[in-house]
Design brief:
about 20% strand; 4-stranded parallel β-sheet; 2 domains; 16 strands; Aldehyde Dehydrogenase, Chain A, domain 2
Length: about 425
Amino acid sequence: MDVKKLMLDIGQNARAASRSIASASSGNKNNALQIVASKLRKSEGLLIRENEKDIKAAKKNGLSSAMIDRLRLTQERIEEMALAVEEIVSLPDPVGEVTRIWNRPSGFRVGRMRVPIGVIGIIYESRPNVTIDAAALCLKSGNACILRGGSEAIHSNTALAALFQEGLAEAGLPAEAAQAVPTIDRTAVRALLTLDEHVDMIIPRGGKPLIRMIMENSTIPVVKHLDGVCHTYVDADADQKMAEEICVNAKLNRPGTCNAMETLLVHADIAEKFLPGLLGRLKNEGVELKGCEVTRKIIPEVGKAKDEDWKTEYLEKILSVKVVGDIDEAMDHIAEYGSAHTDCIVTESHRNADRFLKEVDSSSVMVNASTRLSDGFVYGLGAEIGISTDKLHARGPMGLEELTCQKFIVLGEGHLRD
């Protein structure tokens, strides 16, 4: 197989399809998405059978339990995909929205209008649901997409992409608007990253090595986040019962996700009272605990945290714990070791909550809420195509608006420049 030729053909087809998708009506796009949601439910058996091929290969290849969990499709997860697609249908179409318009002294008007970005390449690992989420968001926002999932999910992703293309075709839209790369050859990724004549943006979803490779090799703008080192800071003024439930949820709800808590910071004034109950509960659930010296004095059986632990995204049942003197030390720790993803304060102090919201420089900052809520679907975006910790164009969970850009429009009546 000539992989470079394959990717060039995919890029050219995506560019051609993007023009049709950009001008498609909201009704046509929504109709396609409704068809896709229906097909997901009707094809549940087929999708699970294809996914089982990937699961068997993953076990044979020694993938971690966290990776296999992210890879697995179940009846519940397929239904969640269908619901996410239907949620996107219900959202306003951002394409063509005039976000602002103003008059100039000479009488002409200037405005800004949302338009599709064009062709978006999504490179991702493990989670097959990204195939549907990304394609649906790109379609509703008027973009074509090229989907390159990981080799570990090739059967699942191929089946899901084919289903999505069927929905496009039945709605009278070009199937090439959502193309999955049909090979696990790694040279396909590097070829995609240099299709700057046909692809406008790359969005990676995966581990740090993948994202670094993409950043170093792409000739196309990349929107990314490298790590999800998420913190929960339990303040001296916290409701400790609420704090315990937030921490348990943030760590254990799904430990293998980028918005799971990886470091717990606790104010010294409450540490002796708060930590034994919480850490005992986490330990009983199989969490490996690593702590600072103060934490280990309170609970001697906690392992010793090394400097590397504070900046590690574990993605499994491991938690770093540090006792801090005050909110300033907590925010300093987050600034030094955090990844600008999601950080939370648990407190009843309005002053401290306000300071945390303003001073912590992350894409999602929370008060009295689990970091696991940092998610496009949960935020009401319908789904997310990724989470950006960049500061240009988009930041945080990326939904429909983040998949558009704005252009200036000028409305005149024969106006000329003097």
